[in-house]
Write a structure and sequence with these properties.
Elements (H helix, E strand, L loop, with lengths): L1 H16 L12 H13 L4 E2 L4 E2 L4 E2 L4 E2 L4 E2 L4 E3 L2 E3 L4 E2 L4 E3 L23 E3 L4 E2 L4 E2 L4 E2 L4 E2 L4 E2 L7 E4 L4 E5 L2
Parallel strand pairs: 1-4, 2-5, 3-6, 4-7, 6-9, 7-10, 8-11, 9-12, 10-13, 11-14, 12-15, 14-16
Antiparallel strand pairs: 16-17
């Protein structure tokens, strides 16, 4: 158990201090950078599928689960318990939160109230997440959905829905 923990720490350190700074996957020699980021991430996150494309300059933590052929866009930030299915595309600068700050008490400053409970974010298979999308805690995105660029997703998204806006709303359904 201790050996795995040391290996996990080393993978994380190498990922965030070296591989995360390498050029993007579409650059010259990009397939090697992609492979290295995938290999190191699989050493410390909860689940990392095959052929995962993690672009550079991203943040995520140990609780991340990501399925086969999925990707995390450049400069994206995924905080907490995030479960991404297979064949998911993610644009740049996306933010996904699985918890929020507590703010229910008015007798204590919000900065001293800590965090709310974790509410996992679940993104099913074959989802396209456009650039600069924000997904808030507890959201479930159904298979085949498209989240338009800049959308702020505060509620569950049905399968095959195309959504956009702030807050995101269903614009149409894919056939």
């Amino acid at each position: 158990m201790a050996h795995r923990s040391v290996k996990s720490h080393i993978s994380g350190l190498l990922f965030f201090n070296f591989a995360n700074l390498l050029p993007q996957s579409s650059s010259r020699f990009g397939k090697y950078y992609k492979s290295l980021r995938n290999k190191l991430a699989s050493g410390f996150i909860t689940k990392c599928g095959s052929n995962v494309n993690i672009e550079p300059h991203v943040y995520f933590d140990l609780a991340l689960q990501i399925g086969d052929n999925s990707g995390i866009g450049q400069y994206s930030e995924l905080y907490g318990d995030i479960r991404i299915g297979c064949n998911v595309m993610m644009g740049t600068n996306c933010i996904i939160y699985s918890r929020n700050h507590s703010f229910s008490r008015t007798d204590i400053p919000m900065c001293r109230q800590g965090f709310s409970e974790v509410k996992p974010v679940i993104i099913e298979d074959d989802v396209w997440i456009g650039g600069r999308v924000t997904i808030l805690p507890g959201v479930h995105v159904g298979s085949g959905a498209i989240l338009g660029a800049g959308a702020v997703v505060t509620k569950d998204i049905p399968p095959m829905a195309v959504v956009g806006g702030n807050p995101a709303r269903v614009l149409k359904y894919r056939k």
